[in-house]
């Protein structure tokens, strides 16, 4: 299993109410429309992921785990990689419950979305803490 660990930050405008996606962005600002965003100021986006990790994510049948940890709270999303993923977006990483693929897509058929994040964790994110992010891939 290949693992990448990095940091992102919370933001006062995080709502985490989107029912089908969850997003991490390198951007440092967030508007109310960004209801899928759960972390900003990320050290990584799709395009900047290490090539070895991208190769594993792009293997059909691979399993991708995205784990967020903040203030002792942990939230994990499990989904699928695949050969249709391009991982070329310069600012975003998106976990999707659907099979839709675009340059931002990190995983498809995810078992959770932003709305599934525990509300106590969402409230913690609003205080702009550092978030520890892990992406783990099993090909």
Task: Please provide a brief summary of the model.
The chain is mainly beta. 10% of the residues lie in helices and 35% in strands. The chain contains 2 helices and 8 strands.
DSSP summary, beta strand count: 8
Instruction: Trace the largest sheet across and list its strands.
Output: 1-8-4-5
Say what oligomer this is: single chain
The biggest beta sheet is recorded as: 4 strands, antiparallel
How does this structure look, described?
With 139 residues, the protein is mostly beta strands. Helices cover 10% and strands 35% of the residues. The protein has helices at 51-57, 119-125, and strands at 2-9, 21-25, 37-39, 63-70, 73-80, 92-96, 105-107, 130-138. A hairpin with a 2-residue loop joins strand 4 (63-70) and strand 5 (73-80). It is globular, with a radius of gyration of 13 Å. The termini are close together.
List keywords for this structure.
139 residues; 35% strand; 4-stranded antiparallel β-sheet; 10% helix; mainly beta
């Amino acid at each position: 299993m290949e693992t990448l660990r990095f940091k992102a930050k919370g933001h006062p405008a995080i709502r985490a109410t989107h029912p089908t996606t969850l997003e991490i962005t390198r951007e440092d600002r967030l508007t109310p429309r960004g209801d899928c965003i759960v972390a900003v100021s990320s050290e990584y986006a799709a395009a900047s992921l290490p090539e070895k990790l991208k190769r594993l994510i792009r293997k059909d049948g691979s399993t991708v785990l995205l784990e967020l940890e903040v203030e002792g709270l942990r939230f994990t999303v499990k989904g699928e990689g695949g050969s249709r993923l391009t991982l070329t977006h310069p600012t975003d990483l998106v976990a999707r419950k659907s099979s839709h693929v675009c340059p931002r897509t990190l995983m498809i058929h995810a078992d959770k979305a932003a709305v599934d994040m525990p509300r106590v964790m969402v409230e913690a994110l609003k205080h702009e803490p550092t978030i520890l992010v892990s992406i783990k891939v099993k090909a």
